[in-house]
Design goal:
It is a single chain. The chain has one domain. Helices cover about 20% and strands about 35% of the residues. It has helices at about 65-75, 80-90, 100-105, 105-120; strands spanning about 5-10, 20-30, 35-40, 55-60, 95-100, 125-130, 150-155, 155-160, 165-170. Strand 8 (about 155-160) and strand 9 form a beta hairpin. Helix 1 (about 65-75) packs across helix 4 and helix 2 (about 80-90) runs antiparallel to helix 4 (about 105-120). The two termini are about 35 Å apart. About 25% of the residues are buried.
Length: about 180
Amino acid sequence: MATFTCQILIGQKHSYDSGIINISHTLYLSENSRPAWILSPIDELNANKQIQQKITWIPTLENMLEDALVMIGLNVLKDKQLISLANQHFKHPNKNFIELYNDVNSVGLQELYKQARKIESPHKVIISVFQGSSIVKQLPVLKHYENDIEVCKSIFTKEFSLWTRKFEEIGSLNE
């Protein structure tokens, strides 16, 4: 059974306050033997009353977080330049299930990352990184993106251990 290790909320920034408004999509990172990003619309019917599908990508291990941001740029923000690049580099750009190692070459992926970093829009991304997530070491790449981003990292975990038969705590709530 896969474990969810990250949640990303995609919405709009508020002009005067922090947080996020008008959340349109969620993105979950499932990890275990093979990671997967799963993008779901909050409302399955968009403004045109068309049914929106859940989209799953099997990311690259070395750029898992940037893969998610490209996914957002293509499927949520629908950036025209990014879509044009995807149409050039993806074998089947409109599939709802993509394996990045098989469906696009590494040079094409680098071009997609570069373009995704340039997207300017009123959207905001809130990334919640859970204990044990592989993307924790990839977070510094977020400084290269031109949009509002908030990162929430795990500061406290209390879990029951089947081995010790006790609750074990990591971190602190006193910060």
